[in-house]
């Protein structure tokens, strides 16, 4: 799934040095965040956001703050009003309203959680104690899919070569730290501190379990994870769909690692009729299976006990909750305080009953007019992308025709699904926070497993309506925009068109472009992994991509850490292409008439300033480090500046010239779609 992820709220600002502005109501631009000391020609990001950056402190309970988090907080506040209203009075038994209210109330009842102690965990811990063989270990890990971290992770997704059929999937997993780099980069002091914090956390968990030597127990688990990490593919390899498409039959896997009970794993995971699995990282899967078959069984049982406590920490006593936050919050993200319990509760309800809550959300907060306006914007962006394909000078007519066919087959989903998930069979019990969590994840896993071998449901959504995000899915060739992103400042019905096109238009263009990034372009219009390019055109495309890799690899995100240009290539293509196409769509919308000048700013300037403010953000170094190792998105400031420098219209809008920091000679500008 290709997402915008932290495509921060495209709220929008701005003011150029030397220009006055119309009011925010007239333009959709926020005039207070600009820095008059910074020229857009030198740093578009800080010209638009610099004063906000200087004046804004990251709250203690945050690792990051910006327009995206502001919008997410707004959605959470709306959800809180809905959920607390349901929890405050009796609801019809068995209804989604009753489930939501009971789940939230139990999660917030910290006194009851404290009184229960570890008693709710005892049945699960007893299951681990009862594991007496390698086969029993594999079966337990199969039953725990979705509930507890295990070294091999199963899933069900459309088959890349048969996108109409759901296929079993096996991928590498099993790490408590954010990525393999945290285990393998011994010379990185920041990662060393994270490892030390993780060992301290594991030590506390082992002590809570009554292990006689907690520190030694933590080291045993850490040693297992070090071995797992050494087998993991890196993030760049793992996002290449050609490399990760490796079908295996269960018999083939059994032949590769005879000592591991593959059939036991699958059967226990409710996957009894598996003809083949798509193994994403085969060398890692085989290596991990060998570890499961060879490393001491007692160590694996200890590993699963500690990870079981970690998985349930949010609904366990204060000592464990605080220890988990000290590691996962403070050590990994830099936050000094936990998020309010009510907000954690909203997140928990979203995870357990996401579409049920989403149905209530859209009924109150998603007007029909927003959907209609979005449909018109998408249509304009799609037409602009088609025009862009026609004008490419590096692509042959043959490949252009194939690209246009793919574009014509795009599916667009806006707001919310046409059919809602039924949670009627999910048991939610008053006062049972841990049991509610376990039953919810087991319910969701059963839903996933039941898709195995079935036709792909093209009406299914991969996000909930209340999520502030969007995505492109290559196997269904669809772009999806949940309701929560379609509100100011991302999408303002009252805003100037230039600002809306720079904001939501760039989001739309970004998601359309994911179908034509370095990975999405390997799928055809029917969602099949198939090379529809001529060899010459593909090489030309890769050559352009290599230039973008070099550009972003030159950005230093935190001291001593560069952006991974290869890892972020897909998102950087989508940003550049999406912004370029959004600009073309904005020009189309003018129908040959000049854009009005508002507050001394041309429409073209307002467009790019709207784009820039979308990336308004401050982030703690610890969180930045975490994202640099695993996130396919570049940091916000480099997204804000990195795409415009390659677009002729940006240089024309602001009159850049040699000597300006963002000036780039026309011949060196990267033009991709």
Automatic annotation (TrEMBL):
Peptidase M13 N-terminal domain span: 41-417
Domain Peptidase M13 C-terminal: 469-669
CDD domains tied to this protein: M13
Keywords in alphabetical order: Hydrolase, Metal-binding, Metalloprotease, Protease, Signal, Zinc
GO CC annotation: plasma membrane
One Pfam family cited in the UniProt record for this chain: Peptidase_M13
Top-level taxonomic group: Bacteria
GO molecular function: metal ion binding; metalloendopeptidase activity
Signal sequence residues: 1-22
Gene Ontology terms describing biological process: protein processing
Cofactor names: Zn(2+)
Family according to the record: Belongs to the peptidase M13 family.
Name listed for the protein in its UniProt record: M13 family metallopeptidase
Organism whose genome encodes this protein: Paucibacter sediminis
């Amino acid at each position: 799934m290709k997402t915008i992820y932290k495509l921060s709220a495209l709220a929008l600002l701005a003011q150029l040095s030397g220009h006055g502005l119309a009011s925010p109501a007239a333009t959709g631009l926020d005039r207070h965040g600009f820095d008059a000391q910074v020229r857009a020609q030198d740093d578009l990001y800080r010209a638009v956001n610099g004063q906000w950056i200087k004046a804004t402190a990251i709250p203690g309970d945050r690792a990051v703050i910006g327009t995206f988090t502001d919008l997410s907080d707004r959605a959470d506040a709306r959800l809180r009003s809905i959920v607390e209203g349901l929890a405050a009075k009796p609801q019809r038994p068995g209804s989604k309203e009753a489930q939501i209210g009971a789940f939230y109330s139990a999660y917030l009842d910290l006194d009851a959680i404290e009184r229960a102690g570890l008693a709710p965990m005892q049945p699960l811990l007893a299951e681990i104690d009862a594991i007496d063989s390698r086969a029993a270990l594999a079966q337990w890990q199969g039953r725990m899919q979705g509930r507890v971290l295990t070294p091999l992770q199963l899933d069900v997704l459309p088959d890349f070569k048969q996108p109409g059929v759901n296929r079993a999937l096996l991928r590498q997993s099993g790490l408590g730290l954010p990525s393999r780099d945290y285990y393998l980069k011994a010379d990185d002091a920041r990662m060393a501190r994270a490892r030390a914090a993780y060992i301290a956390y594991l030590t506390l968990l082992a002590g809570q379990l009554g292990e006689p030597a907690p520190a030694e127990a933590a080291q045993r688990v850490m040693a297992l994870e070090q071995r797992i990490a050494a087998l993991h593919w890196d993030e760049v390899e793992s996002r290449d769909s050609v490399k990760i498409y490796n079908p295996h039959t269960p018999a083939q896997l059994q032949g590769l690692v005879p000592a591991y009970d593959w059939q036991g794993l699958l059967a226990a995971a409710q996957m009894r009729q598996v003809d083949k699995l798509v193994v994403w990282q085969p060398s890692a899967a085989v290596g991990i299976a060998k570890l499961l078959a060879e490393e001491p069984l007692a160590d694996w049982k200890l590993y699963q006990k500690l990870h079981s406590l970690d998985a349930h920490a949010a609904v366990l006593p204060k000592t464990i909750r605080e220890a988990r936050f000290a590691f996962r919050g403070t050590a990994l993200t830099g936050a000094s305080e936990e998020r309010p319990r009510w907000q954690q509760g909203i997140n928990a309800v979203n995870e357990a009953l996401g579409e049920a809550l989403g149905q209530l959300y859209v009924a109150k907060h998603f007007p029909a007019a927003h959907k209609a306006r979005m449909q018109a914007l998408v249509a304009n962006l799609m037409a602009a992308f088609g025009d862009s394909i026609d004008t490419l000078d590096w692509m042959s007519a043959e490949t252009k025709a194939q690209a246009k066919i793919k574009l014509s087959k795009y599916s667009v989903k806006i707001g919310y699904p046409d059919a809602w998930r039924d949670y009627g069979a999910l048991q939610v019990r008053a006062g049972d926070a841990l049991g509610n969590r376990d039953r919810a994840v087991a319910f969701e896993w059963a839903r996933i497993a039941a898709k195995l071998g079935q036709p792909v449901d093209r009406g299914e959504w991969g996000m909930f309506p209340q999520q502030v995000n969007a995505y492109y899915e290559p196997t269904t060739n669809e772009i999806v925009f949940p309701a929560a992103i379609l509100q100011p400042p991302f999408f303002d019905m009252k805003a100037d068109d230039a600002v809306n096109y720079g904001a939501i238009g760039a989001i739309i263009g970004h998601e359309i472009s994911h179908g034509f990034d370095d990975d999405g372009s390997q799928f055809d219009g029917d969602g099949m992994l198939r090379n529809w390019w001529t060899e010459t055109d593909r090489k030309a495309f890769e050559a352009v991509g290599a230039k973008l890799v070099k550009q972003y690899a030159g950005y230093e995100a935190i001291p001593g850490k560069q952006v991974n240009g290869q890892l972020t290539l897909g998102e950087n293509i989508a940003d550049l292409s999406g912004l370029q196409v959004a600009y073309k769509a904005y020009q189309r919308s003018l129908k040959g008439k000049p854009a009005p000048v508002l507050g001394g700013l041309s429409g073209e300037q307002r467009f790019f300033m709207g784009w820039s403010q979308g990336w308004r953000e401050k982030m703690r170094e610890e969180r930045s480090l975490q994202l640099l190792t695993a996130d396919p998105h570049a940091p916000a400031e480099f997204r804000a500046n990195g795409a415009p420098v390659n677009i002729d219209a940006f240089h024309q809008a602001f009159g850049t010239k040699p000597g300006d920091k963002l000036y780039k000679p026309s011949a060196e500008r990267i033009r991709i779609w």
